[in-house]
Amino acid sequence: MPLAIAFAQYILCEKANPKQPPANAISLFGEGEVGTIEKNWEDSCGVCTSCIQIEKLAHPDLHFSYPAIKRDKKHDKVTSADYMPEWRQFIQDNPYGNANDWIDFLKENPATKVESPANKQANITSAECEAILNQLSLKAFQSEYKIMILWMPEYLQAEGNKLLKIIEEPAPNTVFILVTENENEILPTILSRAQLIKIPTYSNEAITAALAAREVSAEVAEKIAFLSEGNLREALQLVENNEEDWQELLRSWLNSILKYHVGSQLKWIEDISKIGRDKQKQFLRYFLHLIRQALKVRYLDEKNLTGVPEKEADFSQRLNKMCSLEALEAMVDEIDKAIYHIERNAHAKMLFHSLTIRLYYIIKDNSLILVN
To answer: Which of 136, 220, 338, 361 has minimal CB crowding within 10 Å?
Structure first.
């Protein structure tokens, strides 16, 4: 999303893309003859009226569409416009947030006044598609271009077909930017009309630098950069929960599984069910990190763990002794499923009870008690 907004800002910037460019200038998207202009703007200026408006997400020619939740039974036709103040606050506070973060933000924000929020599902509705068509049918108010940033188009169902014509043949100077986590979940009819640009993950060095800019200590930043695997959102959430000892929690869980101590398992399940969905997902992702490192140790040289914290490297080696390759693969599959269900509000106690039983049967033939 920050990249999409930055691109939109560049298009709408009054200095990077003036309404009356020099006669010998190249147009914004590369057409025209090569010429020399007074200044080569390789980025938006950041100081013109348009740039200031976009920083506040309030430019009249920059439109947003995103999943929304019905407020109550009286408001059947929910659109993005119903939540624009909340959207601006969410993006400014959490620019790397995902759809679950946005939905949680709506449900926890008293200003939204959503009735029975736990039972509400976010969606991009048919009414929203009609609103998009209406917005883009109007002339640009201030700039040469109109831009629609459609965030999480995978939330579009069959109603998304209403947008096919305008996506395939938009009006002049109309730009669609679709921001997605998983292009495979987008309607094929929409995906076939879009140009796919995959954004690479961040390097560990880039995440370390980003965290350092947020006054995170070098030691903690390096550790979190390793665990986040190029995901800046994940890194920022790990910073918030840096005090959590996931490894000790994992040791306790695996020991109760391997010893088949039902009382300890039930206590552990009770404890983890109280920590909240975000922390539960982070814990399981931490477990996945260790399994992946275990696979690297198994098939690559142990020297490939250079830079990995000593405790994590030791734990990964112990996982190799505890589990066969097939067991590790099965564990990854079960943990991925658990994360998927947590994101969809699965009952925490039932989920971790089921996962505990499944892990027991996966690793019961490779018994090794993890000790400090």
So the answer is: 361
- DSSP structure string for 147-161: EEEEE-GGGB-GGGG
The rounded distance, in Å, linking the Cα atoms of 236 and 61 is: 31
Kindly report the number of other CB atoms within 10 A of residue 29's CB atom.
Answer: 9
> With b meaning 16 or more CB within 10 Å and e meaning fewer, what string describes 356-371?
bebbeebbeebeeebe
Q: What DSSP designation does 26 have?
A: P
The closest alpha carbon to 339, from 302, 301, 293, 287, belongs to: 287
279-338, pLDDT tens digit by residue? 898 889 889 888 888 887 777 655 555 556 667 777 877 888 888 888 888 899 999 999
pTM of the model: 0.74
Q: Which helix (H) or strand (E) holds 205?
A: helix 204-213
Q: Do the Cβ atoms of 334 and 355 come closer than 8 Å?
A: yes
As given in the structure block, the two tokens for residue 82 are: 């119903």
Q: How far is CA 321 from CA 22, 249, 301, 317, in A?
A: 69, 19, 16, 7
